[in-house]
C-alpha cells in the first residue's frame, strides 16, 4: 500500500531539518575561533647558534639550546595568544630558536590549525590538558573566568612537557613583549630556586588570604621563615627539573584541597603558588611584568604603567585590550597592544569575563 502524500512531505521536511542542523553544527564548529592574518616570517640574526639534534625529529622543540615558552591555548583568549606570539617573534634576535609549548583542554585540533595558519614556520607542540584532573579541586573565586580549569595548567607543566625540556618561560595570553625573550629566559635561578618572577613587596600580601587563614596558627606559620612577597604568576621562569624533583604539583594541590574545606583565599590559581613559593623565588626586574593593565578583577578600569623601563606589557585584570577595542572604549595603553592584533577582519569576538 502506498504511503499518504503528507508522509512524503513530512519525510522530506525531516530530511531538510536534519541537513540544516548539520550545516549549523558545522558552521558553529568552524566559528569557534576567529580568523587571523598570516604573520610575516622572522629569521635568526647571523650570530644566533645553529641548533641541530639528529636524535629527535623536532630538534628545536627538545633542545637545551632553545628558548622554551609555555602558554595555554583556548578559544576565548586565542586572539591574545596570537598577539603575544607575534610580539615575541618580532622582538627576538633568534626567533627560529624559540620553541612554543601550548596546553589546550578543548578544540585542540582547531586551535593548532589556527596557530599554524598564522605562523606557518613556528616551532610548536600542543599538549592536551584534562580538565577533570584539576576541576575537582577548584573553588569558586571572585571572577568566573578565573575558575576555568585551564587557568591551573601552569601547575602541571612539569608533568605535561617532555622530561628533556628542563627550563621554560611561562606566559599568560594577555600580554605582549617589547624586548628579547632570551634575556628573560636566561635569568639565573641559583642553586636551589624553582622559579623566578617579578616580586612586588609593597603589595598588601595579607589581603590574598582570608581571615580564616590568618587566624589559624598552623596556616599563618607557613610564611614564618620566609620574606613572602606577592608575585604575578602570568610571567615565570621555571626550572622543570627542580619542580619535578620537589613534586611541587602535589604541594599546590594539597593547598587547593585545604581551600575546598576551609576557604583560605578568594583569588583562583594565584594563592596556591604564593603559599608554596612566595619568599623562595628569584626576583626578576619589574620591567618584565608591567602587569595590571586590565584593571581590577571587578570593573577593569584603565591603569597607567608602573614607573621604570618596560619589556613586557600585561593586561592582567578583567579588562582585555581586544574586548575594549571592539567595544570602541579602549584605554590609552590598549594602543600598545593593537599593532600585534592579527584578527582578520576586525570584527568583535566575544570574551566571557
UniProtKB/TrEMBL annotation:
Its EC number is 2.4.1.-. The keyword Zinc-finger does not apply. One of its GO terms (cellular component) is Golgi apparatus. GO terms for molecular function: glycosyltransferase activity. The keyword Glycoprotein applies. Pathway: Glycan metabolism; pectin biosynthesis. Its main location: membrane. Keywords: Glycoprotein, Glycosyltransferase, Membrane, Signal, Signal-anchor, Transferase, Transmembrane, Transmembrane helix. Residues 1-21 form the signal peptide. It is found in: Endomembrane system. Pfam families: Glyco_transf_8. It comes from the Eukaryota. It is an enzyme of class 2 (transferase). It is a single-pass type II membrane protein. Belongs to the glycosyltransferase 8 family. This is Hexosyltransferase. It comes from Gossypium hirsutum (Upland cotton). The gene is LOC107910174.
